[in-house]
Amino acid sequence: MENGIKKTPSSDKINSGMKKTPSSDKINSGMKKTPSSLLSITELDDFYFQHLSRSPRLNIERKISLDGCSISGNLRHIDSHECMSPLGGFGHRAGFDTPNSTSDNVYEPHMMVVAAWDALRKSIVYFRGQPVGTVAACDFTSEEALNYDQVFVRDFVPSALAFLMNGEYDIVKNFLLKTLQLQSWEKKIDRFKLGEGVMPASFKVLHDSNKKIDTIMADFGESAIGRVAPVDSGFWWIILLRAYTRSTGDSTLSETPDCQKGIQLVLSLCLAEGFDTFPTLLCTDGCCMIDRRMGIYGYPIEIQALFFMALRCALQLLKPEGESKELLERIMTRLHALSYHMRSYFWLDFQQLNGIYRYKTEEYSHTAVNKFNVIPDSIPDWLFDFMPNRGGYFIGNVSPARMDFRWFALGNCIAILASLATPEQSIAIMDLIEERWEELVGEMPLKACFPAIDGHEWKSVTGCDPKNTRWSYHNGGSWPVLLWLLTAACIKTGRPHIAKKAIDLAERRLLKDGWPEYYDGKLGRYIGKQSRKYQTWSIAGYLVAKMMLEDPSNLGMISLEEDREKPVVKRSSSWS
């Protein structure tokens, strides 16, 4: 053990013995895509496609690293099996698997892409010799691993997409099955039992070299800061299962009884009837990417957008038989209500803002315009200058007498990809990003939240959180991982030039800075004060963004089209 790196004596031998097989090339050659093969989303500009047709294709040799991160922590044991030699799991060739027109057109791949793939492979975690995920970070310079040496469900998504786009399916399949297995176990925090459908926030593989035993331990929130269960994990699992099915063209995995049951359990938790008067999901702080107290309790946009996307993915994955038939009807009913609610009450543009500014209060009737009794004086001063004449976005939260007007990048990008946003709203979100580039992107894409809160508001909202100070971490920090979501949204809305501009910004510093977790400052100029280096999702997010620009058909695995059978919600005159 040196600097938190556990080396196995056989790793070099294994790496040197990894060779491509003729079958792997054959498999890959059958998976080549043309830029238009899956695109039914929107027209991309002619220049962009001409550029794609001339682009040299990249081919990067695969390197497997068995170096692990240090193992620490106190999590609950789930199961254990005997170890096997870590040879399996990758039957396909690594790198961008796109054809070269002629040998003269080949030149060296981008140095940063090569470095990113190498770093991503070093983060792979093995269980019984099979790859099952990637650790959150491999920052060997840090004294404490904390929980960064675990496989997080949300963190693995960009890694999984990178592997899928590269034709490496086994690691994603193994991850889906392993997390599904963990879902079935009893989950308790103190003496309280969690719902059956809850997916883990993360899991960790412990290797006992003496007994040759691998043990998996899972965290369902009992070890997390604040002891909050991850609401988003189940949604990301369903979204990733659909991405795997779409990428492989094989529905065998999703149609297994275990996967069908897993989807049912996740959504049954969310669709259960209760005291709610809204179709949105009521959540506590810290239940998603923003996993610390940041004032997102209530109905946060990130959860609502992921919920909507997971529901739509489930419609494609569930077989209309048995228990699923009734569940599918409930999903359709909820989707109609949720899309109306979000498009009507969470959407904000110049016209909407002016309407809220003129609200009357204390209205009591079914014809009330100010349905949530929002006090106009609660509109923050910064918003009047921030809102351009052209553009709009889904605000952070809506609940009785409260509107959280902050911008949250993840929720808005997912809203575009899931078609929760109408085509007009999707264009408006991209218009806002262009109009407010310095505020939302700055020198390092992308602000997780804007603006930062400070002073008394920071004290009351975060509880004086020393990590979420002004323009840091979740409180206005810049997160490179969001680059893949921005790129996907740009391609879907026909704005690839925005993605290209953002990627160019990231390439100036990400590799040189050691792939930080996040950046601080109003413009994102400084490496975060507690930012981990070699953050896996920063690495994978960059790779996914690059591969989507290289081959826009990759967008099909993560994007959903507008449901033409669902009526587009028109803004009522009362909001004008």
Automatic annotation (TrEMBL):
Q: Catalyses which reaction?
A: Hydrolysis of terminal non-reducing beta-D-fructofuranoside residues in beta-D-fructofuranosides
Q: Give GO BP annotations, semicolon-separated.
A: sucrose catabolic process
Query: Could you tell me the keywords of this UniProt record?
Result: Carbohydrate metabolism, Glycosidase, Hydrolase
Which SUPFAM superfamilies does this entry report, sorted A to Z?
Answer: Six-hairpin glycosidases (SSF48208)
Q: Report residue spans for region: Disordered.
A: 1-32
Q: What is its EC number?
A: 3.2.1.26
Cite a single GO MF annotation: sucrose alpha-glucosidase activity
The family annotation for this protein states:
Belongs to the glycosyl hydrolase 100 family.
What is this protein's function? Invertase that cleaves sucrose into glucose and fructose.
The record's listing under PANTHER family reads:
CYTOSOLIC INVERTASE 1 (PTHR31916:SF59), PTHR31916
**Under what name is this protein listed?**
Alkaline/neutral invertase
Recorded source organism is Rhynchospora breviuscula
The organism's taxonomic lineage, starting at the top: Eukaryota, Viridiplantae, Streptophyta, Embryophyta, Tracheophyta
